[in-house]
């Protein structure tokens, strides 16, 4: 695999008259964590579905580990794993049975051992013999992510991995994701939690109105806004400030802010 794990250029997708992606470009370096940020309906899941071969783009190209998602979809599927926005857990099976089943489907030699290792890693050992239908949302999500790690895929897509989790469960998932990247796995995650991107991502891209309007490290994104000067104290902009300035979406719902992508400063506190 080359040093670029994910390459996306000129991706376009419409659902009938709704133009969701209007030319999306980004690269993700191998072994890094890339966060795709965007509001509800921005097209994050659409990007993930195209990259994981579940959906065909109307135009543009995407490659995972050098394999084209359209013409080499089988190779792409062997390279990736996907944890969707809605969990793939079978509620009738126990946590352990869910893991064993996936390991068997992937023709791995020691499914029981793999299942027990993952249960331990995600603090699910005690719950392993209980039906997944009885799990809390956080436990289910952890099981779902554990299932996606079976077979050690080099590229993992996590579509809103911590939506609906309480803060403690969220931190547990973050630790697991960080560990993955340390082990050389490339992670593309989508999130609406700006703190999640701040905590996890090596690079952050904001998808807005069908395009990536900014892509950089947290430090680079923060430099897009000048530090607000309050008397003699300098206040650094948070990722939240950058996000709302660039998307033009404020908590008070001011419409159509940074239409041309030019950073705008918020009046509040400046
Ligand atoms: N199969 C479909 N048919 C028609 N419209 C769709 C379809 N899938 C998604 N859309 C629309 O496309 C837009 C982008 O959807 P998508 O799910 O990619 O957004 P998202 O960024 O993942 O949003 P969220 O944060 O809510 O998960 C939305 O307006 C959605 O309603
Ligand atoms: Mg989505």
Question: What is the gist of this entry?
Answer:
By secondary structure, this protein is an alpha/beta fold. It has helices at residues 44-51, 73-79, 95-105, 111-121, 137-149, 167-182, 194-200, 218-222, 239-247; strands at 4-15, 18-29, 33-37, 59-64, 67-68, 80-83, 155-159, 186-191, 203-208, 211-216, 228-230, 233-235. The site of adenosine-5'-triphosphate has 13 residues, from strand 2 and helix 1.
What topology does this entry show?
Elements: E1 4-15, E2 18-29, E3 33-37, H1 44-51, E4 59-64, E5 67-68, H2 73-79, E6 80-83, H3 95-105, H4 111-121, H5 137-149, E7 155-159, H6 167-182, E8 186-191, H7 194-200, E9 203-208, E10 211-216, H8 218-222, E11 228-230, E12 233-235, H9 239-247
Parallel strand pairs: 3-8, 3-9, 6-7, 7-8
Antiparallel strand pairs: 1-2, 1-4, 4-5, 9-10, 11-12
Helix pairs in contact: 3-4, 3-5, 5-6
The structure holds adenosine-5'-triphosphate and magnesium ion (MG).
Magnesium ion (MG) binds at residues 44-45, 85, 159.
Tell me what you see in this structure.
The chain is an alpha/beta fold and 270 residues long. Helices cover 32% and strands 26% of the residues. It contains nine helices and twelve strands. It has helices at residues 44-51, 73-79, 95-105, 111-121, 137-149, 167-182, 194-200, 218-222, 239-247; strands spanning 4-15, 18-29, 33-37, 59-64, 67-68, 80-83, 155-159, 186-191, 203-208, 211-216, 228-230, 233-235. The protein has a six-stranded mixed sheet, with helices on both faces. A four-stranded antiparallel sheet has the order 2-1-4-5, with helices on one face. A hairpin with a 2-residue loop joins strand 9 (203-208) and strand 10 (211-216). Helix 3 (95-105) packs across helix 4 and helix 5 (137-149) runs parallel beside helix 6 (167-182). The protein is globular. The model is unreliable at 253-270 (pLDDT under 50). The structure holds adenosine-5'-triphosphate and magnesium ion.
């Amino acid at each position: 695999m080359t040093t670029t794990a994910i390459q996306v250029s000129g991706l376009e997708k419409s659902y009938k008259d709704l133009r969701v992606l209007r030319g999306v470009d980004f690269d993700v370096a191998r072994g890094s964590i890339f966060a795709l940020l965007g509001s509800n309906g921005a097209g994050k899941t659409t990007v993930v579905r195209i990259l994981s071969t579940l959906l065909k783009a109307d135009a543009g190209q995407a490659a995972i580990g050098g394999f084209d998602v359209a013409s080499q979809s089988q190779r792409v599927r062997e390279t990736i794993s996907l944890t969707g926005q809605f969990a793939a857990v079978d509620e009738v099976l126990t946590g352990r049975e869910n893991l064993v089943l996936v390991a068997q489907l992937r023709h791995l030699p020691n499914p029981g051992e793999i299942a027990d290792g993952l249960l331990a890693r995600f603090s699910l050992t005690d719950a392993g013999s209980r039906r997944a239908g009885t799990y809390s949302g956080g436990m289910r999500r952890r099981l779902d992510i554990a299932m996606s790690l079976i077979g050690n895929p080099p590229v993992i897509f996590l579509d809103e991995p911590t939506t609906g989790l309480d803060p403690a469960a969220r931190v547990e998932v973050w630790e697991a994701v960080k560990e993955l990247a340390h082990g050389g796995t490339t992670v593309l995650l989508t999130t609406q939690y700006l703190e999640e991107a701040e905590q996890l991502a090596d690079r952050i891209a904001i998808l807005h109105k069908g395009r990536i309007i900014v892509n950089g490290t947290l430090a680079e994104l923060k430099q897009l806004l000048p530090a607000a000067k309050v008397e003699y104290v300098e206040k650094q902009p948070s990722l939240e400030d950058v996000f709302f300035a660039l998307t033009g979406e404020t908590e008070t719902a001011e419409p159509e802010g940074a239409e041309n992508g030019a950073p705008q400063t918020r009046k509040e506190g400046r």
